[in-house]
């Protein structure tokens, strides 16, 4: 497989994951959540005691963009903001019961995707795939 084909596959995979994620949200009982809001929910779900700044840094967006998303998610009942008792200037973000449910469902999609990718691979194939993904990850991290 040549570089052009690898690039074609990577681009198609990236686009298809976003399209499928958005379509699955639209057809679920969580149709009021956008894919960008789902990514915000993911960051909060993965980082206990996340702050708005943590979310902005992880998603590489401005604090203003995160604030808008958090306002929408709070209004829809997916997150709650709680002021720190140690420093009243700090706000921690937590998923509500509804937020935890959509987070877990989204995680299931990603786990199923990983299982599908790795199904039937022997140990050497798995190691090679991990090495390639790590190289891609590091390349993208360096561009941040």
Kindly describe this structure:
- It comes from Streptococcus minor.
- The protein is mainly α and 144 residues long.
- The chain has one domain: Orthogonal Bundle (Arc Repressor Mutant, subunit A).
- The chain has helices spanning 3-26, 35-46, 52-59, 63-76, 97-118, 123-143, and strands at 79-83, 91-95.
- It has a two-stranded antiparallel ribbon with strand order 1-2.
- A hairpin with a 7-residue loop joins strand 1 (79-83) and strand 2.
- It is globular.
CATH superfamily: Winged helix-like DNA-binding domain superfamily/Winged helix DNA-binding domain
The side-by-side strand order for the widest beta sheet comes to: 1-2
Q: Round the Cα radius of gyration to an integer and report it.
A: 18 Å
Q: State the major sheet.
A: 2 strands, antiparallel
List the helices and strands and how they pair.
Blueprint: H1 3-26, H2 35-46, H3 52-59, H4 63-76, E1 79-83, E2 91-95, H5 97-118, H6 123-143
Antiparallel strand pairs: 1-2
Helix pairs in contact: 2-3, 2-4, 2-5, 3-4
Task: Jot down its keywords.
144 residues, HTH_MarR-typ, Arc Repressor Mutant, subunit A, mainly alpha, two-stranded antiparallel sheet, transcription, DNA-binding, DNA-binding transcription factor activity, WH-like_DNA-bd_sf, 6 helices
TL;DR of this structure?
It holds the Pfam family MarR_2. The chain has helices spanning 3-26, 35-46, 52-59, 63-76, 97-118, 123-143; strands at 79-83, 91-95.
């Amino acid at each position: 497989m040549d570089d052009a084909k690898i690039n074609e596959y990577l681009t198609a995979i990236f686009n298809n994951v976003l399209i499928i994620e958005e379509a699955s949200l639209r057809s679920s009982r969580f149709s009021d959540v956008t894919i960008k809001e789902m990514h915000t929910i993911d960051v909060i779900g993965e980082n206990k005691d996340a702050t708005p700044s943590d979310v902005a840094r992880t998603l590489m967006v401005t604090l203003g963009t995160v604030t808008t998303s958090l306002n929408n998610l709070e209004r829809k009942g997916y997150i709650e903001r709680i002021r720190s008792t140690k420093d009243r200037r700090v706000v921690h973000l937590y998923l509500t019961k509804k937020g935890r449910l959509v987070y877990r469902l989204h995680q299931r999609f990603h786990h199923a995707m990983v299982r599908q990718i790795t199904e039937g691979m022997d140990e050497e194939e798995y190691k090679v795939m991990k090495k390639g993904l790590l190289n891609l990850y590091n390349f993208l991290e360096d561009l941040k």
